[in-house]
Amino acid sequence: MDTATLEDMRTTLRGPVIGPRDAGYDQARKIYNAMIDKRPAALVPCADAADVMAAVTYVRDHGLELAVRGGGHSGPGLCLVDDGVTVDLSPMRWVRVDPEARTAEVGGGSHLGDLDHATQAFGLATPTGIISMTGVGGLTLGGGHGYLTRKYGLTVDNLIAADVVLADGSFVTASETEHPDLFWALRGGGGNFGIATSLTYRLHPVGTVGAGVTVWPVDSTREVLAWYREFLPQAPEDVYGFFAVLVVPPGPPFPEQLHGKKVCGIVWCCTGDLDGVDETLSVVNDAGRPAFHFTTPMPYDALQGMFDELIPTGYQWYWRGDFFDGIPDAALDVHLAYGRSNPTPLSLMHLYPIDGAAHRVGPDDTAWSYRDALWSGVFAGVDPDPANAETIRRWCVGYQEELHPFSMGGSYVNFMGSGEGQERVRATYRGHYDRLARVKRTYDPDNLFHANQNIEPARG
After folding, report:
1. Are 320 and 397 in contact (CB under 8 A)?
2. Residue 310: is its pLDDT beyond 80?
3. Of the given ranges (25-29, 251-255, 318-322), which has the lowest mean pLDDT?
4. Which residue stretches of 78-135 are H helix?
5. Helices in 341-459 by DSSP H: which ranges?
6. Which of 102, 176, 191, 419 is the most buried if burial means most Cβ atoms within 10 Å?
7. Taking residues 21-33, what's their average pLDDT?
8. Residue-wise pLDDT tens digits, 389-404
């Protein structure tokens, strides 16, 4: 983009246009993952859908590259594009709750914490992720899973409607009755089909939950994971626990003697009878004596924000993911080896359960194509020091590649890293890819929205 085009954009669009020479440029292009250092030619903060429509029209008419930023939480930095235009939805952080209808309408730039805060005032919630700084829009379009998934399904299973700006600059509402093909694709197909300026969700009764953390020495990883793979799928759907390999952080609730120790563990969320949580989770002793076990009643939105201070914006990240329908014995050895070799205090692996209510949705009802998966795994190298970027990347890639033969072939799209290739995208969507490509041809035939894990428009 030359200077004349940048100035013309400032004249044409209503809101601010931030260029490389502006004082706020570096702050505007800052995202969650500091490993990403892309330099857009312009960032366009949008206050409403009309601003988004105007920005998309300008970008399309001038043949510019386009990226879309919601919460700025994209691991591979897909919310920025070098020398192009980032349409920034961050000013659109608002939530409207209808407590009688049990629905919430959410602005496209909102974070999970915005949604949780607004809905918890009424004792309500919808399934999302586990980091409150995550953008609602990006998480939802990729599928969305977290503490409430076994009980209430994926985020997309609770999506009622979405307002979307399309590649031609027009505005539509997608739902089961309006543009149903687009609505199907939005529920798991990522940001390939347009810009979601608002999303409407079904809510469920959720207030105080039973939160818990159990950790064992890292050398117990094999025995604990062997127990977990049998226990969790048979547990009541009110019981959720994701398995992790990690390093114990310095601070509560962990005792000082565990700080900095490599461990395996489970983070629990129980939505049933709070008086029975301790009894329900007493089974952790069946996996071997824990080094630490802690449970407490906790407001759901507090649990959602529990990890925010531990991994704030501005750290180095490299992550990958895979779906699993089992955890064979050979995989236990891989987890043990990489738990022992964890290179930095914040690097981790999580296995998130995605069974229960998520399995009761038909395999073709949404674009999410792994209804038969039991776990969604993420491998993440994390560290504040850029000097450790290559170290954490190697650990993440090695961990994922050694476990990949035991996987189902594809990954949760929001856990895909940079440069994994088009075949990896196809594996993520399995038999849904061709249908998604046809929807793409209808709504974005020229592939304007390609700064994503891209689904190419079908030919013909």
Report:
1. yes
2. yes
3. 251-255
4. 112-120
5. 389-403, 422-429, 433-443
6. 191
7. 96
8. 999 999 999 999 999 9
Cβ–Cβ contacts within 10 Å for residue 291, how many?
20
Report the amino acid identity of residue 179.
Answer: H
Q: How many CB atoms lie within 10 A of CB 177?
A: 9
> Are residues 245 and 337 in contact, defined by beta-carbon separation less than 8 angstroms?
no
Q: Is the pLDDT reported for residue 419 higher than 90?
A: no
- In terms of Cα–Cα distance, which of 264, 263, 281, 259 is closest to 272? 281
Q: In this predicted structure, what is the pLDDT of residue 329?
A: 98
Q: Token pair for residue 249?
A: 């952080």
> Cβ neighbours of residue 315 under 8 Å, at least 6 residues apart?
33, 34, 346, 382, 383, 384
Which residues lie closer than 8 Å to 172 by C-beta, 6 or more apart? 163, 164, 166, 178, 179, 182, 194
- Please give the C-alpha separations between residue 320 and each of 249, 316, 329, 416, in angstroms, as whole numbers: 22, 14, 22, 5
The residues near 14 (Cβ < 8 Å, ≥ 6 apart) are: 50, 51, 54
Q: How many other β-carbons are positioned within 10 Å of the β-carbon of residue 100? A: 7
Asked if residue 382 lies in contact with residue 311, where contact means CB atoms within 8 angstroms, the answer is yes
Between the alpha carbon of residue 389 and those of residues 30, 316, 344, 400, the distances in Å are 17, 6, 10, 17
Mean pLDDT of the chain: 97
* Length of the chain as a residue count: 460
Per-residue pLDDT at 418 = 80
CB 67 within 8 A of CB 40: yes
Q: Does residue 154 surpass a pLDDT of 80?
A: yes
Report DSSP state, residue 458.
P
Sign of CA dihedral 11, 23, 93, 129: positive
pTM, entire model: 0.97
Question: Can you tell me which residue has the tokens 């979405």?
Answer: 162
Decide if 357 contacts 152 (C-beta within 8 A).
yes
At 329, list the tokens: 């014995």
Distance CA 441, CA 447 (A): 8
For residue 460, pLDDT over 80 is answered with: no
- Find the angle CA(132)-CA(358)-CA(301) to the nearest 5 degrees: 20
| Rounded-to-integer distance, Cα 326 and Cα 382, Å | 26
* Residue ranges in 156-266 assigned as alpha helix (H): 180-186, 221-234
Phi, psi of 244 (to 5 degrees): -145, 150
Residue at token pair 């229960």: 356
pLDDT in tens, 71-123: 999 999 999 999 999 999 999 999 999 999 999 999 999 999 999 999 999 99
- CA 233/CA 125 separation, integer angstroms: 23
| Res. 135: pLDDT tops 80 | yes
